[in-house]
Specification:
disordered N terminus; Methylamine Dehydrogenase, Chain H; 0% helix; 5-stranded antiparallel beta sheet; mainly beta
């Protein structure tokens, strides 16, 4: 949807104004709540192709786009019956939209797990999976690598899409930017897959659970070194009613992930951290609050990051050793770090769409 019928949400005046927080560097601004259409509940993903062009989706099948770094958003298309769970963009025109699929959320009728767009999200085409399929997608990972071809280094786009919450599990894999896909059945390895991250073309991790029943499942992280042909358990929580929800890597070695607990009697919330590329993981206590069920996580460097929870946001500045409350809206499901010259923008999406600028 475009032209005079599109809905636009623009901040009063130009960009939203913000003031420095006491004790912070003068160039660091407060978290801003960006002007977006009201939505009941949390929105799941936000993605940027560059500092200006970004998108977020909703469970109602609405896809919104910004061309000014988040200061304003416009509805570019609406597909009722689709639940936009995950997004990933190669550039300002080409990207992928992941749908949660049917038989999980009420009102979702779309069985197509993954779409491709080549016009900035206005039109979507189902990914050609060669007759195979996946129940639904919860996460999309886009990896830019280079390969040697006839004596030249050429760019190569590796795309993975994985899911889903509630199961069943599988991974879509493309090594040519989304033209040809293979489908990896993950049901022998995991009950749910909530996130995926590849460090190179062969080495990757999925963030998952051991089963499909929230009451009995344990948090699980799997690692592959052969492009998904085989998988090794590198972390298992050993506690029931847990999932590994989202992950954030700041390098090929250092990464973090949230441990989402549905045990109402358990107050201690944990995250996990790796310093060896996901070969091993250490549990770190975050906060003792049974209401702070975790969702998204995002780090700008090895020391500083944020976690979104049902009780609001938390921030660490010492690599996860300690956390303090942060003004992030409830249920922030995804954090994205966008570089703009010397500045870094941290976007959070959940019950609100927010931005923190670090210059």
């Amino acid at each position: 949807m475009s032209g005079p019928n599109r809905r636009e949400f623009v901040a009063a005046g130009a960009a939203l104004a913000a003031t420095p927080l006491l004790g912070m560097a003068p160039t660091e601004l407060q978290w801003e709540t960006l002007p977006t259409e009201a939505y009941p509940g949390k929105r799941d993903d936000i993605a940027f192709a560059d500092a200006l062009h970004g998108w977020y989706g909703t469970g109602k099948g609405d896809l919104f786009r910004t061309t000014d770094g988040g200061a304003s958003w416009a509805l570019v298309t609406s597909r009722p019956g689709t639940f936009i769970r995950a997004l990933g963009f190669i550039d300002a025109q080409s990207g992928f939209i992941g749908n949660i699929g049917t038989d999980y959320y009420p009102g979702v009728t779309d069985t197509v797990p993954l779409y491709r767009t080549d016009d900035g999200g206005v039109t979507w085409s189902p990914a050609d999976l060669g007759g195979q399929t996946l129940a639904g997608v919860c996460a999309i990972d886009i990896l830019r690598v280079r390969r040697i071809y006839q004596g030249r280094l050429e760019p190569r786009i590796v795309v993975h899409a994985a899911g889903r919450v509630g199961g069943p599990t599988g991974i879509l894999r493309s090594t040519d930017g989304g033209k040809i896909w293979s489908v990896i059945d993950m049901s022998p390895h995991a009950g749910m897959i909530l996130d995926i991250r590849f460090l190179d073309e062969q080495t990757g991790l999925v963030f998952a659970s051991t089963g499909r029943d929230p009451a009995t499942t344990e948090g699980l992280i799997l690692r592959t070194t052969d492009g998904g042909k085989s998988w090794t358990q590198v972390y298992r929580s050993g506690r029931t009613a847990e999932l590994i929800w989202k992950a954030s890597f700041v390098s090929d070695k250092v990464g973090y992930a949230t441990v989402q607990s549905y045990d109402e009697a358990r107050a201690q919330q944990l995250i996990v951290k790796t310093v060896d590329g996901g070969k091993s993981w250490q549990e770190l206590p975050m906060v003792e609050n049974a209401k702070a069920r975790q969702f998204g996580i995002g780090f700008v460097d090895e020391m500083r990051g944020w976690v979104g929870t049902m009780a609001g946001g938390y921030e660490t500045r010492d690599g996860g050793k300690t956390f303090a409350p942060a003004p992030v809206a409830r249920a922030a499901n995804k954090f994205r770090i966008v570089t703009d010259g010397q500045r870094r923008h941290v976007f959070a999406i959940g019950t609100a769409v927010q931005r923190l600028t670090i210059g």
